[in-house]
Design brief:
The protein has a single domain, classed as Rossmann fold. Helices cover 59% and strands 12% of the residues. It is built from nine helices and five strands. The two termini are 33 Å apart. Bound molecules: ligand Z5A. Belongs to the thymidylate kinase family.
Length: 224
């Protein structure tokens, strides 16, 4: 693929959306073509599935049925949005992707890892992120941030935000295990820092792992 595929993962309120916006701005200042997208969602049909799942309508079917619905949304998202962008040379920044299914439905929902592996294989058809940034912070802090944002916007909690604190603590461990298992693809970023510090850590990860995306930033300094 001509573009790079970067996914952002982590628990509630970790700062993914905020940092994706900052990274997009940074890359655009370097004249890099960037598409921001999200899961579940990112294409018209996948957004319909998003509304259904996050509205809690699939909860009674259990974690495996939910995993299938996330996978169905992902297939459409890949076909309609991600793959065409990558083929055209546009970098894709995606707010959550397949690791969310591994963490939420797989680890937390106690689905057999082999089954999740097979589901992921048929869903992704070989498309894997070039880099996954896992924004890590204590669950209490993430939930407090997400709660404050909801209060500001007058929104309610969704299907997963309603789970108790032990769910979110286990979620953090699930993401750290994913990072440990795939160190070449994943970088854990300490998200319990101020916004600028998190942005700097993310940029450092990009410079190290995907220098082809950041090299334009280095050139003017080299010339000077
Ligand atoms: N899900 C799943 O189960 N299986 C799957 O396969 C997939 C998803 C793909 C989607 O929720 C849900 O679907 C998700 C998992 C599940 N669980 N939930 N809920 P979503 O898309 O609606 O929400 P989210 O992905 O969890 O994101 P979020 O809670 O909106 O958080 P965020 O994007 O990481 O954070 P943010 O919006 O950038 O920041 C939150 C607030 O904190 C905001 O007010 C910021 O200004 C503030 N913030 C951010 N960074 C900082 C720092 N560094 N310091 C202080 N304050 C900060």
């Amino acid at each position: 693929m001509a573009g790079c595929f970067i996914t952002f993962e982590g628990g509630e309120g970790a700062g993914k959306s905020t940092q994706i916006e900052r990274l997009k701005n940074r890359l655009e200042r370097l004249a890099q073509p960037v598409l921001v997208t999200r899961e579940p969602g990112g294409s018209p049909h996948a957004e319909e599935i998003r509304a259904f799942i996050l509205g809690g309508h699939a909860k009674h079917l259990g974690p495996f049925a939910e995993a299938l619905m996330f996978a169905a949304a992902r297939i459409d998202h890949l076909d309609q949005t991600i793959v065409p962008a990558l083929r055209s040379g546009t970098h894709v920044l995606c707010d959550r992707f397949a690791d969310s299914t591994r963490a939420y439905q797989g680890s937390l929902g106690n689905i057999d890892k082999g089954l999740i592996d097979r589901l992921e294989k048929v869903t992704l058809q070989g498309v894997k992120p070039d880099l996954t940034l896992i924004l890590d912070l204590p669950a209490e802090i993430g939930l407090a941030r997400a709660g404050a944002r909801q209060a500001r916007k007058g929104e309610g909690a969704d299907r997963f935000e309603e789970e108790d604190i032990s769910f979110h603590q286990s979620l953090r461990q699930a993401y750290l295990s994913i990072a440990e298992a795939e160190p070449k693809r994943c970088v854990v970023v300490d998200a319990n820092q101020d916004l600028d510090e998190v942005e700097t850590a993310i940029w450092a990860a990009l410079c190290e792992r995907l220098p082809q995306m950041t090299e334009h930033a280095v050139r003017p300094l080299d010339v000077a």
